[in-house]
Amino acid sequence: MGALLSSPIRNGYSPNCPDTPNGSWILGLGALTDNGLDTTQIKPAPLDDPLVSKYLLRPGDFLVSRSNTLDKVGRSILFQGEIQNTHFSDLMMQFRVNKSKVLPAYLEYCLRSNIARHYFHKSAAGTSGTMMKINKRILERLPIPLPPLPEQRKIAAILTAWDRAIDLTRRLIDARQRRKKALMQRLLTGKVRFPGFTEPWKEVRLGEIFEEIRDKVGETGLTPFSISAGIGFVSQMEKWGRDIAGDQHVNYTRLRPMDFSYNKGNSKRYRFGCVYVSHLDSDIAVPSVFISFRPRQELSTHFYEQYFLGDYHGHDLKRYITSGARSDGLLNLNKTDFFKILVPLPPLKEQRAIGEKLSVAGHEIESLENSRRLLEKQKKGLMQQLLTGKTRVKVER
Asked: CA–CA separation, 164 vs 168, rounded Å?
């Protein structure tokens, strides 16, 4: 890297920032991501500090995170002038390159490659895994594979095409998610009735239509699962690398396919806990601290799955939560109160129609997510081939 620089590497400056925006900005460390610049991660810069102006960013500047957690240290971006009047902080290194030797667009992909990430991970030093550091010398010694400029341009164009496809897929996912959220708000609350249905909805206690599952696992040897917010059921081995159940496995609750379970763990996004239905093909074991339940009568599982996914139970549930989160991260909520919450009870046929429509919308999003993951995997493979010279690209004269 050191042989490609047109200006020395320098660290940024972190002033005391005011609370009120004033048109001048400092990039926060979170602005450097694996997918480019996050323009929301900025803070107002003080106008009365003369040092700030020395660290103004220009299009074509590279930024590298010099201090962060091990998985984030060495993150880099090529600044393209996305934010006017923006400066870089002390936890970043800035430099510019000689364009007669290396194209910035090509170097940007090199800095994001597995080769660079592995190099930074190996070179980082620190007293704890929470804040690791790299310095200017480490950055200068980063090995950069350097084909001729026309080949650099072609490689950057190929990888940019993949980035555009990934970005388009992300935007399609966002649009589908907004559409589904709007459908959920209309259909799951009864504000807009599904076409062809006029029979009034009822409002009932959860315990009137669902019953608690008390079946214990015993010595059956079922696989222990947990619930991860935003993901759903995940085996403990997959989540933590081991079965944390231990001897308590026999006291876990036995869950059948299409049974519900509520994890009252607290988080910023799922502040009232989360409910998921098991779509697994076989019985599983879940911790007894979860509240597990199944229908007492014929209901549309898909309707209530979408209702809980939309967190519509949270509005009534908060009445029964006594004093925030406990020391173990769980909400103070007992099972008896959980089954007191009010839930809608539409006619069965309307439940099924709503559940099916929302499930189809969910499958569309899942399909797009699979496409995005495939594109990212293909791009990763291309980078491995093109940025190491294993596969050469043909360049027209």
From this structure: 6
